[in-house]
Amino acid sequence: MLVHPQFDPVAIQLGPLAVRWYGLMYVAAFVAFILLGRLHARRRPDLGWNRDMIDDLLFYGILGVIIGGRLGEVLFYQPGYYFSHPLEIVAVWKGGMSFHGGFLGVLAALAWFARKTGRTFFQISDFVAPLVPIGLMFGRFGNFINGELWGRPASPDLPWAMIFPQVDQIPRHPSQLYQAAGEGLLLFALLWLYASRPRAVGKVSALFLVGYGALRFAAEFFRHPDPGIFSGLPFELSTAQWLCVPMVLLGLVFFFRRS
Known about the structure:
By secondary structure, this protein is mainly α. Helices cover 59% and strands 6% of the residues. The chain has a domain at 2-148 and 166-193. It has helices at 21-43, 51-77, 79-84, 99-117, 121-128, 132-146, 175-194, 203-219, 239-257, and strands spanning 2-3, 10-14, 17-20, 162-163, 171-172. Helix 4 crosses helix 5 (121-128). One of its GO terms (molecular function) is phosphatidylglycerol-prolipoprotein diacylglyceryl transferase activity.
């Protein structure tokens, strides 16, 4: 049995300036996006992307991730808490970013970028989709370092069962690492390989929706469920699982309707 290391959330202290691990994970995600985007553009010159376009897209994407991710956390998961503590809404350095909110924010950013460049939405999203999972992986590493989003209770016989002392003394699944492996590495490998060859417009985006939705849905069975607005609905599903259902359904529709 393992015990969570209880990392100091501050990676570097420079006088009054505290650089947190959570923020560094976001920086790593953005750097990975740039590097993978340039590599993807070189291996698929037929897509017509260059460095300037990738840099501009990252700028819009960062706004979408931060604004959408935070608003998603506030509205989807803990509206009561944040409406009672409104100043906490802007405290993104403390953690608390919703993927589904960030996803909606990114969709808005992609739509704006598509309009600006004269491309279709799916041409943009097909290029972006393979670049996203590694960033998600870094985000889950940040969750693990912060000791947040811990897992459900696990068998003490599970070799990697972990105690999170800030929660209790019960062995739990390190679900942050499960998600880093699934929604991060596994989804990246799937999309990176699939996008290496020309596909019908929209296919790569659809595969992302199905892949992420299915992997996140499965991971939720090992993760302690977040509070949320869907907790009173039928069936024992978490908020994130309910949000994943339309992702998978829409992804399947887009995938099979596009030749």
